[in-house]
Inverse folding.
């Protein structure tokens, strides 16, 4: 188990506890038990995130147990499960997702 990750880009296959801070992250499988701060995030279908996510853009196909805050675009795909709050500037949602969440669209500052 890894305690903390600070890197330019990360591909996560195992369990991480504590924090992830990077420019680009892909969560592929297993569970990530930590908060994630990144510019670009991809949570693939078999991944489970147990923590809050702060990002610019994200694509979610897996399970997120925590809040998601995206200052840019958030894509939620078929098969995604979200247990938490969602706050984003732009949200694209597949009609077949399982969600137990509150969704808030950020105001356009123009």
């Amino acid at each position: 188990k890894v305690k903390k990750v600070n890197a330019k880009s990360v591909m996560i296959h195992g369990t991480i506890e504590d924090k992830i801070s990077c420019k680009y992250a892909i969560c592929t499988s297993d569970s990530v038990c930590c908060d994630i701060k990144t510019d670009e995030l991809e949570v693939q279908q078999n991944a489970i995130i147990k923590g809050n996510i702060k990002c610019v853009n994200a694509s979610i196909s897996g399970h997120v147990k925590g809040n998601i805050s995206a200052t840019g675009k958030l894509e939620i795909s078929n098969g995604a499960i979200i247990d938490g709050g969602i706050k984003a500037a732009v949200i694209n949602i597949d009609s077949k997702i399982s969600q137990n969440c509150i969704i808030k669209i950020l105001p356009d500052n123009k």
Remarks:
- Residues 100 and 109 are 28 Å apart (CA to CA).
- The chain has a mean pLDDT of 79.
- The chain is about 0% helix and 80% strand.
